[in-house]
Design brief:
By secondary structure, this protein is mainly α. The protein is built from 14 helices and no strands. The chain has a domain of about 240 residues.
């Protein structure tokens, strides 16, 4: 019995990697085919798709900035998965986190605050807002048996219109034409690393968080218990670990990290909070976590490739000949293709392999 289980665990690793490779290769191939057949100038659009995001400092910085947001939010999704939960409210948590941070940064009561201290306060406020949203879903799951997938999504869907109202109403800049808040002062922004692009210090913070997430899951006793409780709750109970106790912390930490991405977006990327700034970041983070098979270090190449595909389609859109609908369809197709890695181990399994006897 042990040998059979051990052999399966060994064989699952290359199957998982092959599933991720199929996802990425399929997304790149499909994107190239769509661009080639729909663009008025296929050669120009394909060149913009493949090398556009890396050609100039402005494009490179913006691509890396988007990857930093993906890394932060997808780490939150990964920790929820590892704890035995599914956070489907990431889109709303990014939105609410960014709005909460903006309210702190624009508050008249913080007029004389030091810039570093104010940024830390705004960061903590954003994480607290997202953590509260995640914790509520965790409490409902543990106390009342509610499905956290549904509760996190409904809570996100309920609070997003309230955020729209605040941005378009009480918090809106009356002197501007956008549905957005006032711009933050220069000393209330995260330092830029590659001006004039949007790349900020959030990229460094995102890499540090990924490393800390990996250390927690694979180098600490608490992380081992956390993983076991999420992946094998019955085995965890046999070993004296209460799997249900991990649900609330998992959803709380997940919501906090996802909302931290919202703080990075408003304080590092945009310099203000505009209506709908999340722009699908929460859904993209779920896709990145699925591609990475919920492994923190694997989030880096997954976010890099996913961010390149998204930035490449937008670069091809700006080049010429590619319609906005095609660009949106490419990004939607990538979201669908992330499910391939679940079936890849079954597809790749040899039908001629002899069954081992127990």
């Amino acid at each position: 019995m042990f040998k059979l289980n051990h052999s399966k665990s060994v064989l699952s690793i290359p199957a998982a990697l092959m599933g991720a490779f199929i996802t990425v290769a399929g997304a790149v191939l499909l994107s190239a085919i769509l661009i080639a057949f729909s663009a008025a100038s296929p050669q120009t659009s394909l060149r913009a798709f493949f090398i556009g995001p890396w050609t100039y400092p402005w494009f490179l910085g913006n691509t890396l900035d988007g990857i930093a947001l993906l890394l932060t939010a997808s780490l939150g999704i990964t920790l929820a998965f590892r704890g035995g939960c599914f956070n489907l409210g990431a889109e709303g948590q990014v939105y609410i986190g960014g709005l909460t941070a903006s309210a702190v940064l624009l508050s008249p009561a913080t007029g004389n605050s030091a810039s570093a201290g104010l940024l830390c306060l705004a960061c903590l406020a954003a994480m607290a807002a997202g953590g509260a949203m995640g914790a509520l879903s965790g409490v409902l799951k543990r106390r009342f048996g509610a499905n956290e997938l549904i509760t996190s999504f409904l809570l996100s869907a309920a609070l997003s219109p309230a955020a729209d109202y605040l941005i378009a109403g009480p918090l809106r800049n009356p002197r501007g034409n956008l549905l957005a808040t006032d711009r933050f002062a220069a000393n209330r922004l995260l330092p830029r690393l590659l001006p004039p692009s949007y790349l900020s210090l959030s990229f460094v913070f995102a890499l540090v968080l990924i490393l800390l997430g990996h250390i927690f899951l694979y180098r600490t006793v608490w992380g081992y218990r956390f993983k076991i409780a999420g992946s094998a709750p019955e085995f965890a109970r046999y070993g004296g670990i209460n799997a249900e106790r991990c649900w609330i912390p998992a959803m709380t930490v997940s919501g906090s990290l996802v909302s931290l991405a919202g703080f990075f977006a408003v304080a590092g990327t945009y310099g203000l909070c505009h209506q709908g700034f999340s722009g699908g970041l929460g859904w993209n983070a779920i896709a990145v976590a699925l591609i990475a098979r919920n492994r923190p270090l694997a989030l880096i190449p997954a976010a890099l490739i996913y961010g390149w595909l998204k930035a490449g389609s937008e670069s091809a859109l700006l080049a010429r000949g590619l319609s906005f609908e095609t660009s949106a369809f490419i990004q939607a197709a990538i979201l669908i293709l992330v499910t391939i890695h679940f079936s890849a181990p079954i597809i790749l399994k040899s039908p001629f392999k002899k069954k081992e006897r127990l």
